[in-house]
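Async update (no meeting this week)

Hi team, since we skipped the sync, here's where things stand on the single-chain job. The sequence we agreed to prioritize is pasted below, unchanged from the tracker. I ran it this morning and attached the output directly underneath so nobody has to dig for it. Comments welcome in thread, and please keep replies under the output.
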Amino acid sequence: MGKQKEENILHKKEEKVIHKKKELSVLDLPGVGAATADKLQNSGFNNLLSIAVSSPGQIMEIAGMTESATRKIITFARDALDMGFESGVELLEKRKNINRISTSSQSFDTLMNGGFESGVITECFGEYGSGKTQIGHILAVNAIRDNPDAFAIYIDTENTFRPERFIQLAEGAGLDPEEALKKVKIARAYNSDHQLLLADKVYEMLKDGETKASILIIDSLTSHFRAEFIGRGTLATRQQKLNKHMHTLLQIADVHNIVVYVTNQVMSKPDTFFGDPTQAIGGHVVAHSSAFRIYLRKGKKGSRVAKLVDSPNLPDGECNFFVETPGLRDV
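Output:
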């Protein structure tokens, strides 16, 4: 009994040490003073996690530190957060905390194994009028219905969010429209830099506990990038900027366990002689960052078709539905 009691005391002490480590701030990093901490925090590196997952080059450029000093603080941050391997059983246990937001369409939810999954990015791409924005509105309403204590956050890059449409869908979901509107936070992004800034702002809001959210919607993801970076000469810069943006969204989804839904524009490949020439904008950067990719297109008699083209755990498939005033209706 005495040995068991001693082991319990040691276990509790270890838990306290780990808890203490996780509460460390940027100022607790070795060799980081107030001035350096300000530089890091002003550039978005305001906690140990952001330091731990960064590259030495990023920190060196911002803080003006030597390579050895930079590697030292990154190693310290990683050790403090105990960032190592975990077993498949532990990962399976974590996945039990995943939430799903319904689309209100039974066939669409079946295709997505119960709805849109939290902790990852889901991308819907398709031509204009294919239903991308409508699905964004519906997901926002259903997120508020399922979790009234949390907000739906909407970054609008094309001026497509309509409170009137939101009210119709809220009524269709059985919600008080006025109360539902109070639970959605909308920001209009006027260019790509503003869009990146808003994503960083969302991360700050969630990190500080200022806002609790269950979904982040960006409609559309690539609109500003496509308009501002024209020609092959700017492609590398555009992709680097877009890659940084996607990593911020991935961090938001993973750290805060929320659904991140992004819509994407498409282009037509002129060298496609057989099959559908439609291709999503953003290339491999967007494709690799999105866990689920859904291709939306117009179907027969005004219906819409959603085709799951990429998923880490679900088979490819498609479903048909109608977009109506109260929401989605299965064919």
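Quick observations from my side:
Confidence is low (pLDDT under 50) at residues 9-22.
The longest helix spans residues 235-256.
Reply here if anything looks off.
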